[in-house]
Amino acid sequence: MAFKGLKINISLYVIIPVLLSMILIHFVLVYSFRKVVLNEKYDLTISIMGNVKRQIPAQNGAGDWTPSETLTNFLHVSGIRAGVVVAGTDSVIYLQKPLSPLSEMLLKSAGQAIQTGENQKRIFHAGGADASEPRSYLLVCAPDILDSGRTAAIGLALDVSDTARALRSIQRISWIYILINTLLFSFIAIYKIYRLIVSPLHGIAERADAYRDDQDFFAVDRGDDEFGRLSKALNRMLTRIANDREQLSENVETLEKLNADLRKAQSEMIRAEKLTSVGRLAAGIAHEIGNPIGIISGYLELLCRSDISDPEKRDYFNRAESELRRINLIIRQLLDLSRPGGQDRRIVSVHEILEAFSEMLRIQPLASRVNITLDLGAENDRVMADANQLRQVFLNLVMNAIDAIDAESRPEKGSIRIASSLINQEGTAFIEVRVTDDGPGIPGDVLENIFDPFFTTKEPGKGTGLGLSVCFTIIEGMGGSIRAASEVDSGTTFAIQLPVIIDSE
């Protein structure tokens, strides 16, 4: 369809200029021919006027002069169909009878010639003997001074109907010539343009449509002309594209491998940081488990005695069972925290995670010097997240706060406050969890780097520098954000924002 439109446009762009040029040539030729013929007729009429002037008697200045029959016949044979001689305003001689509208037109033109002193010339069309055949006349009036010294004007009407018919015949022939030449020249021009432009373009388009990746070339070689150079340029372009495609494919494979390695390294990094945190908790939990085990051992020794009553035995059983449940709870919490995180995302309650997490920390010796308080005020705490990864984030933040408070070695207990609230940003609801401590704070030059991997201010062997980097990676992966604000000697606040799940009603 595109090439059909191109063919039509080219045809129109060729035919219209050729037709217009032929029409212009036609009008120029007809106008030139008409002008030449009329000038010849005009000169003939002026010559006849000289003969008429010589026939006018000098003594009376045409006042009572009557044209002779010889002059009348001469005028008729010469093609003159009307004539007047006007001497002033009171003497008019009609050279031919009967009078006709030509005579009236000659009188007007003669008067204008006398007034202006210039020759008057015009074409007049009138009906002939046959109403279907119009007649054309050349009216010429020339001012003159008669031999008597009197100002006069001679007007003659020359019949130019034969000339007009010949001109119309020439015009008809010219129109036929224009039509034939327009069709012939247009056909030749369009054919040449098709051969030189449209056909090569059509061939290139067909080769391009049929081009396959396993082909090296698709364009037609046409030598050193423009289309030949275009074909070679297209072939070079396709070669570069093929090479770039191969390179791109190799780069994509390399990137996919690097991404897989990066995800694996990231997972291992998160796992390592989690195990580090779990290891620190396990040391405190070992102490917590030792106390219930000692109590259970004492109850078992009492149960081996034979001097206790059945109600006492039941009481000792219940107390031992309570201590076992306590041990089970501690171990289960540790197992939940150490469970590998993945992409097992589901709707979870942030408040439930925080409450269970704070209960586990309260029995930890490392948290014995801090008071952990919860202020969970968010109306909606349901988010799409991996619960294990979310626990790891909160654990890293709280343990960093505990380490910062312990680093001060102050006598009084520190405080860690965990608060939640619901905020709205650009039409999206988020739950914001703020972990605030009253530790020494973080200097400004350090604060801007705390989320960088392997960045730490702790002593060697006491920190890997991955905790906050892992928190940042996990929260960003959940579609949230994490930021820190701190002032020296005024504590630090970490704010986590996660999009909440809105129940559709």
Q: Which tags fit this structure?
A:
alpha+beta; 505 residues; Beta-Lactamase; 5-stranded antiparallel sheet; Heat Shock Protein 90; 12 strands; 5-stranded mixed sheet
Describe this structure in words.
Among the domains are: 2-180, Beta-Lactamase (2-Layer Sandwich), CATH 3.30.450; 344-505, Histidine kinase-like ATPase, C-terminal domain (Heat Shock Protein 90, 2-Layer Sandwich), CATH 3.30.565.10. The protein is an alpha+beta fold and 505 residues long. The protein has a five-stranded antiparallel β-sheet, sandwiched between helices. A five-stranded mixed β-sheet has the order 7-9-10-12-11. It has helices spanning 2-55, 69-77, 101-116, 161-209, 226-303, 310-338, 350-362, 387-408, 444-447, 467-477, and strands at 80-87, 91-94, 120-127, 134-145, 151-159, 346-349, 370-376, 382-385, 414-425, 428-437, 481-487, 491-499. The mean pLDDT is 77. A hairpin with a 3-residue loop joins strand 1 and strand 2 (91-94).
